[in-house]
Specification:
Layout lengths: L2 H6 L2 E4 L7 E4 L1 H4 L2 H18 L3 E5 L2 H13 L2 E7 L7 E8 L2 E8 L8 E9 L3 H12 L3 E10 L14 E6 L1
Parallel strand pairs: 3-4, 3-7, 7-8, 8-9
Antiparallel strand pairs: 1-2, 4-6, 5-6
The protein binds adenosine monophosphate.
Length: 173
């Protein structure tokens, strides 16, 4: 399935969750089993070359793509979650969203120093969420060797906030 065919399965909702935001809704892609599998395969290809020890999924749509990728690669999965959801000792970070502010957390013992990790989310918008996640992972001493998205909104300039050469996005909108 080509990136254009995958893009055609993502629904566009204008003015959600606020006026002026053009929301890319992946639920229409997920209910098509061929498209969901093709999206996982397309995202996995560059991730395999980065040879990660662990996949980091960002709540909640990063879980939908990150967990099956971790399963395909035979490696572990670590969730980064919104404030107050993780039960054990955590570290946290506050960051700016395209539409608001948020706090993300990771378990303090989720990553070991030197582990190679790839961060996964569905959509790269302003890059604030993933830049915050990157800092969390680095605070634990792990090495971010790649960042993978299904889709990217290049007009919002998120890629410029991230390290050069380690960002993959299958669909540019
Ligand atoms: P950002 O921090 O601005 O890169 O936003 C990324 C997070 O918000 C991702 O987890 C996306 O799922 C979600 N998001 C932001 N903007 C959009 C959008 N226009 N369409 C779909 N998801 C979005």
């Amino acid at each position: 399935m080509t990136p254009e065919q995958l893009a055609a399965r993502i629904r566009t909702i204008p003015d959600f969750p606020k006026p002026g935001i053009v929301f890319r809704d992946i639920t229409t892609l997920l209910r098509d089993p061929e498209a969901y599998a093709a999206a996982i395969d397309a995202m996995s290809a560059p991730i395999k070359l980065w040879k990660p020890d662990m996949i980091i999924g960002i709540e909640s749509r990063g879980f939908i793509f990150g967990a099956p990728i971790a399963r395909d690669l035979g490696i572990g999965f670590v969730p980064v979650r919104k404030l107050g959801k993780l039960p054990a000792d955590t570290i946290s970070i506050e960051y700016d969203l395209e539409y608001g502010k948020n706090v993300l957390e990771i378990h303090r013992d989720a990553l070991k120093p030197g582990e190679r990790v790839v961060i996964v989310d569905d959509v790269l918008a302003t890059g604030g969420t993933v830049a915050g996640t990157l800092r969390l992972v680095e605070q634990l001493g792990a090495e971010v060797v790649g960042i993978s998205f299904l889709a990217e909104l290049p007009a919002l300039g998120g890629r410029a906030r991230l390290p050069d050469g380690i960002v993959s996005a299958i669909i540019p909108f």
